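Recall that a protein's primary structure is simply its ordered list of amino acids. Everything else, from secondary elements to tertiary packing, is in principle encoded there. The following example makes that idea concrete.
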Amino acid sequence: PECDDPFVQLACQIAQEELIAGEFEKLFGDDPRRPRLYKNVSDGRGHSQAAHRNFCVTADCWERITSREICGRLLCLRRGAISRETKILATWHVVEQILTGAGKYGDEYALWHDRLMPEEAEALRNVFQISGRADFTEELLGEQTTHSRPLINSRYEPLADETNGRYHCICGDANRAEWPHLFKMGLTAIILGMIEDDALNLDFYISDPVTAVREVSRDPTCRKPVEVEAFSGGKPFGLSPIALMKIILFEMGKYLASRPVPEWCPRIHDKAVWAVEALGKEPKLLEPVLDWKIKERLAGIGRGKQNAFLRHFEYHALTGPKYLYRTLCENEEIETVIERDAIERYKTIPPETTRAYFRGEFIKRFYKDIDFFTTDWYEIVLLWSGARGSLPKKIMMLDPLALTKKECGSIFEGDKPLTLESFKNMFTNHVYEQR
């Protein structure tokens, strides 16, 4: 669901994972032929699923970060050149993996693109990387998600009214540990806010981010220089991922101190500053915090690389007897921040500060009365018993921050019995378009 707080969003995601895993166990039980359920972005054999992120930004910000121009609601025209904001955002996505990478064994990019001898291919399957998704980045900009995958996705689908844009971010990993997920969502949200406010004052950008994202992934020391260029021109120079991240976090700190911000912003920022300092001076401190550092530690336990590769998949398992991540949490070997009560709450109750509240409460109360409905982020289409001869009705929800509990909680939680007719002022006729 839509959330305006990364901590709430993470609680919702964990709740979702546990609901899915619970239904999976009910369905398959002890069946010896049961499939396996993982939360991961790569199978080690050239296939990727991705962990998509969605951020609501202004329409103007969307145009700037994607180097596009909105022409009407569906048509997007390419700008004449890659914008400054696109270059800055690409630089962020290259270096964010040192905090958000889930770790991976295997060099799938080389396995795809090179003709290798069997022994060479086997060696590449044992290469350790910071990110599971980096191998699948092939372009800087593009609308694709399943091939020629871009670092910055430019698909125009706002899922809201025309004043909004949706940044559909397809780079990044499927995190198990909690702090990397909070960094992935929270820090990127702050970066986008800085771009919206013209407050991200970086003087340079990574010259070739598509190549750099793979190079950084293959450098667990995070110290090898990445080539950057100044916006003012001049000779390219090198900066390490740690140095780049420190500069970005310094600018972020100034931005957060200059205006009122939600409580989660400094909490996530301060933890990120600590993590980057630890990465440079005492990396062992991050072994309970970052997914890829947890996996590095696990690689040293047991018998050789093959065992480490298997532990990588056990770490991402959502069900089964070898549920490594849950075991590590129970043994207090991974730092967690989300309270158990919050996870249980969001299994049955939607977030209260976005349109997810109305959508969730509406469906929860009326799904038994509706013969047919489909729902998306911005609309609910329904047909209820006794209305077969009429057109389906549609409820539009075009403002992500409207229809909250504050606005309509009294409707759902009041003493007056609710019926579908209670919402007739929100209904519009829905006519299916012929494709």
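The longest helix spans residues 6-28. The radius of gyration is 23 Å.
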